[in-house]
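>> Question from a student workshop board

For tomorrow's exercise we were told to take the sequence and the ligand below, predict the bound structure, and bring the output to class. My setup keeps failing. Could a helper post the expected result so I can at least see what it should look like? The ligand is PMT.
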Amino acid sequence: MLTGQRIILGVTGGIAAYKTVLLCRLFVKAGASVRVILTEAAKQFVTPVTLQTVTGNQVYDELFIASNRYTVEHVGLAQEADIFIIAPATANTIGKIANGIADNLLTTTIMATTCPILLAPAMNTQMYENPLQKENLAKLSSLGYKIVGPEQGELACGDSGRGRMSSPEDIFTEAVNLLHKDKPWRGRRVLITAGPTQEALDPIRFLTNHSSGKMGYALAEAALELGATVTLVSGPVKLTPPTGVTIISVITAQQMYDAVLACFDNVDVVIKAAAVADYRPATTSEQKMKKSDDDMTLALIRTPDILAQLGQRKQQQLLIGFAAETDNLREHALGKLKQKNLDLIVANDILQEGAGFNVDTNIVRFFFRDGRERQLEKLTKREVAHELLETIDELYTKK
Ligand code: PMT
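>> Workshop helper replied:
Here is what the output should look like for this input. Compare the format with yours to find the bug.
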């Protein structure tokens, strides 16, 4: 999601400095390159070696600059950065920046930067509420600095109130929003479902299918890359959700129904790539079902058809379904498009090699509401995801 993005993370001296290890990991996992500048006080809370290890990059501190011939390297870094974050930002550093004081490596470097700056203040409640501190923060905000947090809660000093640094996840999301502010899908809310559902027979056995979640997760990743706000409702899969999505993990079709319906009113686009069980056992045994010499007949009952339900409730949303077929692909896909009131259905013949379940590629055909069709060649699921989002974008702008 952040491939090629260059981030400078300034860490100042507060207890929350230890959380920057996780923050760095989130950025690195998302593909960004992170350079850390540590103040001397910050080193009391987190070590250069730790941050160097998680970022894979040299950490900049006063010592580094003193021993390095190229003392202006940090200025070059500041000018190349896509975003400059200070987390935690202490009252001291906020005050210095607001008043043009540049007396250490971090405050000097920030003066030389022209990229967006994000501050994550963290301090004791009384310090946060101090009028001088508030004035400094307001001044920076009026100059275009973005502020995330601080949050309300229990503080390291034992007090309770506003002053706790925002979570690494929230800082990450805020940074992504800033980095993506010119992206085409920014502000668009997308709900994606992925993976199978599992319908329990007893504590050990369940009915399910071969969905790996790869198609849905590729869609979530592609939507994030375009700057969308993504909620991913996922059945049980072995994949790691892309950093930056809101993940809702479910197991059964009923749970997926509940999660999707709860989000539906607040989204603009829904893409249902999940392979939802159409039936579940009529009863689920609380104990392991014992075998006997007789054959067994299982009674199955219908699960809710989530997509059909969304089709009935549709307002502003664009509704995209998938159709997994083994025969009469066109006829079945068109039937589902109509019956579920969709804007577009993506059909895959799961018997074709390189298509459908649990492979990295797919071969799909788009069927539109207005009767158009478009066959795509064999592509990676990532490429299919991008093609589909481009197509949805056209539908969206025509609305
Ligand atoms: O996960 P992968 O291994 O990457 O595999 C990808 C995939 C094959 C699962 C994917 O490409 C795909 O085809 N997903 C839809 C599978 C499916 O359940 O198709 P269907 O034809 O049975 O259902 C039609 C549509 O109705 C689907 O969008 C489905 O999510 C939805 N549905 C189905 C049943 C149900 N009870 N509720 C639903 O919302």
